[in-house]
Amino acid sequence: MADRQHIENLGRFINIKLRDIKTNCENGFAVMLTVTRTPLRVSLFGGGTDYPEYFEREPGAVVGMAIDKYIIIAALGLVGCQDYNYRLSYSKLEHCQNVLEIEHPVVREVLRHFDVSHRLDVSVISDLPAAGSGLGSSSAFTVGFLRTVYALLGQKPTKIELSKKAIEVERDILCENVGVQDQLHAAFGGINRFDFSGSAIRISPLQMTSATLRQLNASMVLVHTGIARRATTTVAAQIAVTRTRAIDRELSELYRLVAECVSLLECGTPGWLTQLGEMLSASWKIKRTLSPDVSNTVLDDLFETIVASGAYGAKLCGAGGGGFFLALIDPERIPGLAERVAPLSVIPISVDVDGSTLIYCQSR
């Protein structure tokens, strides 16, 4: 039902843009419409070791997945009759005459970086709240918008080129406090282990059986905390203590769990799901110690409710402070979990295998 609704929404979205193209073409103007789809992500283990402040002196690694919840970006070339040169529709609406007036930092800086002169109408829709979700939405948007701009310029970057450019935009151009895993998950899709050492990145897709993947997909849910937060403050505090090496022991334990998770998922031996859930809960307890901003009594109580509902285990996604819990639970127990945490949302998820994709492109 969710997939059908998603397709219907996307269809209406594209039809509106196609109607604009038809009108513009009848007026004799050349236009282009591109639509990209970029997945959000769930990080399983290793978060915190994907910051250069850590992996430039110690090996870092993460394991996680892109999920079937998306940010969709459509960009339509404008004709000459509008009284603006750029229109952006996201959580707010912008009408601008030049790139420097654009308030959205990623859109502004990417257009500047590539010296894009196209007059554009850019629209953004998202399956889940884009701000404060803990699902890598900021980096997913950066990856998706880069994919859009590359398409407008007639370029086809590789997935690693797309990832590295997104990292450059966020860390070097915008000076954001971000790691480097979210951009990789969004670009590559699937379930991967990413290793970091100095300037090197190694990508290792997990070799899972179809039965293990089906069981994992059937058992994953997101539980919304009802709290939206910006990760910047929490991450800044964590980066500061990372530089002092004060949390090296905790980060090395999260790093160790990466290999253990990969082994569980690739072997798929009986009881692997229970073990993985226990590891999730253990990692959450470690993560809570990294910064006082990671958790609070509301989040602690919700975690206990999730576990008491029969979940194998759970952890908060992202930097902490709010967003979504990832829980592993027997599918038959999901209705009971939803009842216990109501009115908070419980959302089944599965693995996206495509990564950021150009799903529509029409030029005349």
TrEMBL record:
- Alphabetically list the UniProt keywords: ATP-binding, Kinase, Nucleotide-binding, Transferase
Residue ranges annotated for the GHMP kinase C-terminal domain, each copy included = 274-340
Tell me where on the tree of life, at the top rank, the source sits.
Bacteria
Entry's Gene Ontology molecular function annotations: kinase activity
The family database entries (Gene3D superfamilies) matched by this protein are listed as: 3.30.230.120
GHMP kinase N-terminal domain location is 107-190
Output the PANTHER family linked to this UniProt entry: L-FUCOSE KINASE
What the record says about family reads: Belongs to the GHMP kinase family.
Could you tell me what this protein is called? GHMP kinase
Please name the source species.
Answer: Methylobacterium brachiatum
